[in-house]
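Entry 14. Structure prediction run on the chain below.
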Amino acid sequence: MTESISIPAAPDAVNDLPATTVADHAPAVGEQTGRSEGRPNGPRDGARKEGRQGGRGRGQPQGRKTSGDGARRPAPPQHPVLAHLATLYPVLFGAKPLPLKRGILQDLLAAQPDVLTKDGLKEALALYTRSTRYLTTMASGQARHDLAGNAVEAVAPEHQHHALLEVFKRRHARTGEDVRAELYGRMLLAAESAGMAPADYALRVRNKDEAANAILDEAMTELTTRVARDQALLQAFEASGKTVNEFAGMYGLHPIEAAATLNRARARAEATLAATQAAAEAAAAQVAAAETATTESESDADVGAEAEAAETDTRASDAAAPASDAAAA
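Output returned:
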């Protein structure tokens, strides 16, 4: 029995591109046979060695399929628009791609109106942003870049997570190796780098694939333990009145390790405080907006009532006028 890790396509740098799923690219990932210390198990050393040395494609680089006689198959032809983009913007579309900023399609059309067409560019970018090479870059956590090669925005955690799952999915389909242990580690690293509370991170990146979510949950359990440990260490340091080096000596830590842990705990605490303040401000803004809407509604109702009363007085006055005229006559 196998478990699948279906990965819904995440919003990408390209606007309005058709969505894909992992099922369009690769078969299911093999099932784990056991777990150790709460982590997904990787293949045993013997199996790993056999997978590297034996079987089809022995001694050949992974990722390049071979024909029946052992000769390498030629690489598929590059889309002409992508080839042109690599010439125009080698930093973004060259040998080592960078994550593209959201809205890059419109930027490219505005920058190259006489060279690029919307349909052709849309097709090319759809191929490019779904390539394993680009997804690997997205999974690395690098920032998104504009046409000038400047980092302009962070890759959203859910986009990085989806790219990471897709890369490992394709790797398993290509090599047959059990990638779950390494995927677990990469999930843990990505979540820790995001600086979010583990529960918030899990809620944001979770998808409909239960196998992927199971690995995610185990990684978040370990991260929760790490966060609590780091926070306790920070509190102990702040209460100690010691320097970092002195404190590290007290706890048997290397000074560099101690400093990194303390900085990580501070950054996470600051991020949590900022998120809490932002949520409180958003809630206050909603309350203020609701109060304003209520006040305006009441004001409109008062104006309407006053107008209706004035109209009633006018009608009464008009009705009384003929009677006065008749009496005067």
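Residues 6-38, 42-63 have pLDDT under 50 and may be disordered.
Filed with the rest of this week's runs.
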